[in-house]
Amino acid sequence: MYRDPEAASPGAPTRDVLLVSAIITVSLSVTILLCGLCHWCQRKLGKRYKNSLETVGTPDSGRGRSEKKAIKLPAGGKAVNTTPVPSQTPHDDSDRRTEPRSSVSDLVNSLTSEMLMLSPGSEEDEAHEGCSRENLGRIQFSVGYNFQESTLTVKIMKAQELPAKDFSGTSDPFVKIYLLPDKKHKLETKVKRKNLNPHWNETFLFEGFPYEKVVQRVLYLQVLDYDRFSRNDPIGEVSIPLNKVDLTQMQTFWKDLKPCSDGSGSRGELLLSLCYNPSANSIIVNIIKARNLKAMDIGGTSDPYVKVWLMYKDKRVEKKKTVTLKRNLNPIFNESFAFDVPTEKLRETTIIITVMDKDRLSRNDVIGKIYLSWKSGPGEVKHWKDMIARPRQPVAQWHQLKA
Question: What pLDDT is stored for residue 177 in this prediction?
Answer without folding.
Answer: 94
